[in-house]
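Consider this one:
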Amino acid sequence: MDIDAWVWWLIAAVGLGIPLVVTAMPEFGMLSAGAVAGAVTAALGGGIVLQVVVFAVVSVALIAVVRPIATRHSRQRPGLSSGVDALKGRQAVVLERVDRRGGRIKLAGETWSARALDKDQTYEPGQEVDVVDIDGATAVVI
C-alpha cells in the first residue's frame, strides 16, 4: 500500500499539533500550518523539494511575523483600570481635615475616608489632593 505524500504531510501536521495542545507553545501550531502548506503543495503535484521549501518558508514566515506580534500583545497591560486601581492618580477634594490620623475626601463623587501619605502634612477642607494609593477603604493622599 503506497500512501500519497500529501497524507504524510497531514500526518506531520497532526503530529505537530499534539505538542501545541500539550505544551501551549504556538510555534508548534505554526510548524503544523507549514506542514498543511506542504500537503497542499503535494496535492497540487509539486515535487518533494518544492514541498519541503514551501513547508520551511511558511513555517519560518509565520514564526518570524506572528510570534513577535503575539509576544507584544501578551505583554501589554489592559488599557482600562477598574476598581480601586481606577482611583489611584485621581484628584479629590478635602471635606474634613486630612492628616496622618484620617479625614474625609470627595473622590469620584463619593465620600471616602483618607489619610495623608506624609505624616507631617495636613490638608484643609476645600483643598485638592491627589490619591496615591487605596489602603482598604482609606484613600492615601498627597
